[in-house]
Design goal:
Length: 340
């Protein structure tokens, strides 16, 4: 939920122009603006002491446009988060069956790292998809390891992360459509799709539906055999909205934070809690979750046996969220599958 982490070893036509995310440090004018800036200013002073991040923040590369999120990012000291946040971009994509565009946020390869180590040809492309109500920042430790050997993209799923849905439907159909358009328009070639937790269901859905775009599949403690959202999708909106407020509350996020890590002392930190909540204060967070819940969530269990791509299943022995037997179910169901 809040930044699923990897408890195993590392892995061996629109023409959009990516743009920096709108700054989290921009606030409205007036007296309230002064108060907000004074609080955020403490964060900028800290960024200056750390060097490279302040330039990015001052150039407008931030997370979202809400003052509270600006305060949260200003309080974070974890260098892995700050490094990755400094590389966030957005690309505007048009989705099928929509009369509008969405801005998909992602972290992509550096220009000087797009080629293989020997300088010949391109590195294999890998697209990483985060879990339920998380963001691409959950890959902040894995990303720099993988980009040594891959052209890596960590993408925010429509309705979550820092992607701006602009009020559009964020149900499973449209979450998948946004990723398909991202691969076609930004990556522009077949990819290895890596999905963590609920991101595994997203990856399975795309691999089954678009085998021409997904050449290989990596499932990290992935959801696949549990379909839908149960009775939650049938609840009225006046009940779901208060539940969503609980979802982004500190006590619940702290509980999920601790469940996500085996080494809780080193990784289930206050910074990790703040990283997991950063995206929860953007304008479309409530509406995006509402449309996803009303659509019933992902149901991919019947698609798993049809996966033909080479698949790697990575499963942590100490996963506290999904049942351990699921890793064996994947191996049994997918004909070309290995387990790590």
């Amino acid at each position: 939920m809040v930044g699923t982490t990897f408890r195993s070893s590392r892995l061996s036509q629109l023409k959009p122009k990516p743009k920096p995310c709108a700054s989290a440090l921009n606030t409205s004018s007036g007296r309230e603006q002064g108060r907000r800036r004074s609080r955020v200013g403490l964060g900028l002073e800290r960024f200056e002491r750390e060097g490279r991040v302040v330039a990015r923040a001052q150039q407008g590369v931030g997370l979202v446009e809400t003052p509270l999120t600006g305060e949260l990012i200003a309080e974070i000291e974890e260098s892995a988060c700050l490094d990755m946040a400094g590389r966030l971009q957005k690309v505007e994509l048009a989705l099928p069956d929509m009369n509008a565009t969405v801005d998909v946020s992602f972290v992509g390869p550096k220009d000087d790292k797009s080629k293989a180590k020997d300088g010949k040809g391109e590195k294999p492309a890998i697209v990483m998809v985060h879990g339920f109500d998380s963001s691409c920042l959950e890959f902040r430790r894995l990303f720099p390891i993988l980009e040594e050997d891959f052209e890596v993209y960590a993408v925010d799923v429509l309705g979550w992360g820092f992607t701006d849905s602009k009020g559009q439907d964020c149900g499973p159909k449209y979450k998948g459509a946004a990723l398909v358009e991202f691969i076609k328009s930004v990556v522009k070639r077949p990819v290895t799709m890596l999905g963590a937790s609920l991101g595994g269901a997203v990856a399975i859905d795309l691999a089954a539906s678009y085998p021409d775009l997904v050449s290989k599949l990596v499932l990290v403690d992935a959801q696949g055999f549990k379909d839908g959202l149960g009775v939650l999708q049938y609840l009225p909106e006046f009940i779901i909205k208060p539940l969503l407020e609980v979802l982004r509350s500190v006590p619940l996020r702290q509980s999920a934070n601790k469940m996500s890590y085996f080494n809780k002392d080193n990784f289930a930190t206050e910074d990790a809690l703040k990283v997991g909540r950063l995206h929860c204060f953007k304008e479309d967070w409530i509406s995006g979750n509402l449309t996803f819940i009303k659509a019933g969530g992902f149901s991919v269990s019947e698609s798993i046996s049809g996966i033909g791509q080479p698949t790697l299943v990575i499963w942590g022995d100490n996963d506290e969220i999904l049942p351990a037997e699921d890793k064996f179910k994947f191996v049994d169901a997918i004909r070309n599958c290995n387990l790590r």
